[in-house]
Amino acid sequence: MVNGLTTANLGTPDFELAQRQHEQYIDALINCGLEVTICKPDNDYPDSTFVEDIAILTPKCAIITNPGAQTRKGETEEIKNVLTGFFNNIEHIQNPGTVDGGDVMMAGSHFYIGLSERTNDIGAKQLIKILGRFGFTGSTVRLEKFLHLKSGVAYLEDNNMVITGEFTDNGAFRKYNLFKVDDKEGYAANCLWINDFVLVAKGFPTTKELIEDAGYKTIELDVSEFRKIDGGLSCLSLRF
Ligand code: CIR
Questions:
Q1: Measuring from atom 5 of ligand 1, which residue has the nearest CA?
Q2: Which of 72, 148, 65 has its CA nearest to residue 112?
Q3: Which atom of ligand 1 has the smallest separation from the CA of 101?
Q4: Which of 94, 154, 229, 240 could be a cystine partner for 6, CB 3.0 to 4.6 Å?
């Protein structure tokens, strides 16, 4: 992971510390009532800990993405093996379409798809078509600065959404109760709802308070080493 793609300028991750943070992340998922399957390390792919980008899981099917970054394309092989044990329907995004799962946010039966440097129009169209076959809908949101859609917006169920930066005034999200995170704490907008808990990155007190004031129980987790390679809480797992 120390060779992961990054734009963060925060230095090289401390691998041992990253491992401890990863263990705490797994413990938090278990404490939220989830059963966790841990994938084996894939040493050929430094970004492969960010499994969220490689598949999109819905109640009816799994969709293996075609990641936008060249160095991540091969991650799909291993995730497919893992998901075959859980899903009967496995679909694929295909060239020239590209999609990173970090650009896909499920809100009920609707999926918001960020058009980014990683997710292109063709990929988004393929995804919407697949989703449609399983009774879901999808729409696109164009990104300007963020790496992924979910770097700046998180759905907390019950019509509640945490939002920051360029997404704050985007009409696409107007119908939700928006909890606006100041740019200073923008990283913390990538939080994660699980069974009435919300996992929040450590070190962002205003965001934590905002989420708690909305009635959620929070679990603070230090993900400093993953942040150094542009990753966050949602990226480290696939939930279904
Ligand atoms: C990448 O650039 O692909 C990784 N270093 C970070 C991916 C983070 N994933 C996410 O936001 N869903």
A1: 5
A2: 148
A3: 12
A4: 229
* pLDDT tens per residue, range 174-208: 999 999 999 999 999 999 999 989 999 999 999 99
- Per the annotation, the verdict on 39 as an active-site residue is no
Q: How far is CA 93 from CA 42, 68, 88, 100, in A?
A: 21, 11, 17, 10
Locate the ligand 1 atom nearest the alpha carbon of residue 67 and give its number: 3
Burial of 102 (0-12, 13-18, 19+ CB in 10 A): buried
User: Ligand 1 center to residue 75 CA distance, Å?
Assistant: 13
Do 81 and 117 reside in the same domain of the chain?
A: yes
27: Cβ contacts below 8 Å, ≥ 6 apart: none
Give kind and range of the element (H or E) at residue 18: helix 15-31
Enclosing H/E stretch for 210: helix 205-213
Domain that holds residue 130: 36-144
- Please indicate whether residue 50, judged by its CB atom, sits closer than 6 Å to ligand 1: yes
What's the distance, Cα to Cα, between the start and end of the chain in Å?
25
Distance 230 CA to ligand 1 centre (A): 5
Give the pLDDT confidence of 116-171 residue by residue, as tens digits.
999 999 999 999 999 999 999 999 999 999 999 999 999 999 999 999 999 999 99
Tell me, what CATH number does 135's domain have?
3.75.10.10
Strand 104-107 versus strand 110-115 pairing type: antiparallel
Torsion of Cα atoms, 69 then 163 then 214 then 200, to 10°: 30
